[in-house]
Amino acid sequence: MKKSRWIVPALALAFAAVGCILTTGQFFVNFDLDNITVSTDSQVASEYVDLNTISAYSDHKDQLEGVSDLAVLGTIFNTGATGIDVQVWMTPDSTGYSTPSQVTTNATLLWGPFAVSAGDSATIGWVESTKLFSSTGKSMLIDQVKGDGEFTVYVISPGTNYSFDVDNGVLVVVIEAGL
Amino acid sequence: MKHVIALMVVVLLAGADAASASHIGVGLGAFGGYCAAVAQDDAGSGFIYGFRAPIRLIHLLTIEPFYQSASLSDVEEDFGGVTTTIPGYDMTAFGANAIIGSLGGAGITFYPYVGLGSYDLEQSGGTSDTETGWSFGLGLGLPPISKFTIQIRAELDMLVEDSSSRKFGQINAGLNYNFGH
Fold first, then answer.
1. pTM for the whole thing?
2. ipTM of the predicted structure?
């Protein structure tokens, strides 16, 4: 029996060493972008995102370790006469750009393009969405999630003549954080 | 990954040496059970199966190389009124457990164990990651019938990703055949 006394402290030490890692989990933080209408008239739809308004984020922000996955979801209806390539751009701060050229000049491409033919609709799937993030935009978004959790996103499509609706748009971030 | 392979080599060499010693027991077993994601919104649950080869080196220590595979279910989540499917993970792993105590004896035996392995997580149509994983478990060995023993285990697998981890709990039951005396 004496020989096995080392087992308990050894196990306790092992558990203590991995304790912080052991008490983490993966949690959804989803920010509703609601229904968005983008047309040639308005050209740009924007949304100021404050993740601190979401309890899953604010509850775990102090123990945030990283971001496991990202997705932009929703259903896009192309109500125009030409095909569209929907893109989401972002700025790390609160901004108010009103034209596509201002957006593409000053913001960073986050996600897209997601193609929808004229008159068609398409629902964005999880796997497809996760593959449409640009590396630069993804890095910026992760920095914001780890930072103050506030940023601005813009929805546009290249070209000068387009019209589309985004129904039930949502930005989903899977955070890794302490329990 | 490299240190897991190195550990496997050491274990296999030790096993080969152990097999030649008459007082050391070598076994082979298969198991099946259920595996569930722990504290993970984006991962599901599913059946798990695998194989293991316990090699009893000394009285209180058994080294057990293992292979296991699990197919975890999709996660259906409602985001803003739209249900989205997050494809489930296929998880495969190989490594070795260090078991403190004996897997079988005259009566019922209990034993704790710790394992180290290489875990592959592949999401259908999505990402694929290989991570080093630790496992912590408690086992129950039922009295042997001839050279067979039934093993029932509860285990937590922890796949380390930088400063966080993915965890999976599993309960499994298996049958071991003992080649030793």
1. 0.82
2. 0.82
